[in-house]
């Protein structure tokens, strides 16, 4: 279906393969629903709460003591920009969840400032997600989620919760902030799952 | 209107351009006839999709500039600011003409919205074309006959940069609406202040934290970052400050 837009030629085709409907940017735009929280590392804490209510905690020093990885990934925002080969440093969720006793299928990421987003546990494991605290070799700016954010680069970037402070694991799927506001519950950029029902 | 909150699938539909209005040297309002528009909340946006004759497509999101009422038929308005080196906005601002079809999909977004039934006064703070969704809220306020106190702080570079000049005059004539412009580069005669919104402007013209207002801030990312930080520093509850940012962060990366 569809129409032709009279007089529209668009940019040159070809080149980099991007998910459908995305365009390339060299900037690093920001999508946030409210003021940027400014969280000091001395007050920072990350918790994982299992489906039985058991809590696992890391303060900043504990996070820094864990083995870190350098990550280079393409990122795709639902507002249609994609940024290629972004470089991060952080701790794999495989490491953080290694000693967590859980059989839960779903996780809700919670952030300082009240933001939430839901991600299946399977999408957090096997080298697919990290808690990152450096971007491009520098400490992560508050605007971009510092001191630490979730990074789940194979999903639209709203899933990579800025200012992350914890994961709550659950047997049932709840919806997070943008998901409740009409965005897709899963958010695969390659299937162009932008909005509910896509 | 509550149906917009239901998780339903959004499909592309073909709208027809019925009017275009030049707002500034770089911005244009496009009036669209949309036969199957389901209605929208003030502040929501939609996706526009352009297709070249070889099938190449490009899409972008734009805030809806108008309020929805069943009485106005099936018309909605978009106001588009041309982005330098943009792919879609130059077409919408300079090429698209009355009678042309335009594919759209929406409405989208359930956070940066104002509902007439919500509690408390409303503070709107816009920078440049960030005024677009705020204008939709002002329009909704006007046509629902709401007496909720509204204040708009609108930051522009110079008098020629003001979008919705006549509209804002009309809206400001309401007892419940206060409109104040802040000029960052060049002010009109009789307006002594030239400069960005700062703590002083916020304390003079915005609702205070005690007023229980919901504040909507929309504009380029550095503008929104600055204003939202000023509001929080002035004692406003971050949970009552809703933001919508566009464009790069302004930093080197």
SSE blueprint:
The complex is a heterodimer of chains A (198) and B (253).
Chain A: E1 23-24, E2 45-49, E3 55-59, H1 60-65, E4 69-76, E5 81-92, H2 93-97, E6 106-111, E7 116-120, E8 130-135, E9 138-139, E10 149-151, E11 164-170, H3 177-180
Chain B: E1 13-22, E2 27-33, E3 45-51, E4 57-63, E5 75-81, H1 89-95, E6 101-108, E7 122-127, H2 131-143, E8 150-156, H3 165-172, E9 177-183, H4 199-205, E10 214-220, H5 221-233, E11 241-246
Parallel strand pairs in B: 7-8, 7-10, 8-9, 10-11
Antiparallel strand pairs in B: 1-2, 1-6, 2-5, 3-4, 3-6
On the 0 to 100 scale, the average pLDDT of chain B is 92
Oligomeric grouping of the chains: heterodimer
Structural class of chain A: mainly beta
Helix count from the secondary structure assignment of chain B: 5
The whole-number mean of residue pLDDT values of chain A reads 94
Total number of helical segments of chain A? 3
What string gives the helices and strands of chain A in order? EEEHEEHEEEEEEH
User: Termini distance of chain B?
Assistant: 41 Å
Can you describe this structure?
- The complex is a heterodimer of chains A (198) and B (253).
- The model of chain A has no long low-confidence stretch (mean pLDDT 94).
- Chain A has helices spanning 60-65, 93-97, 177-180; strands spanning 23-24, 45-49, 55-59, 69-76, 81-92, 106-111, 116-120, 130-135, 138-139, 149-151, 164-170.
- The two termini of chain A are 16 Å apart.
- Chain A is mainly beta and 198 residues long.
- The longest helix of chain A has 6 residues, at 60-65.
- Chain B is of the alpha/beta class and 253 residues long.
- Helix content of chain B is 19%, strand content 31%.
- Chain B has helices at 89-95, 131-143, 165-172, 199-205, 221-233; strands at 13-22, 27-33, 45-51, 57-63, 75-81, 101-108, 122-127, 150-156, 177-183, 214-220, 241-246.
- A six-stranded antiparallel sheet of chain B has the order 4-3-6-1-2-5.
- In chain B, helix 3 (165-172) links the parallel strand 8 and strand 9.
- The longest helix of chain B has 13 residues, at 131-143.
- Chain B is globular.
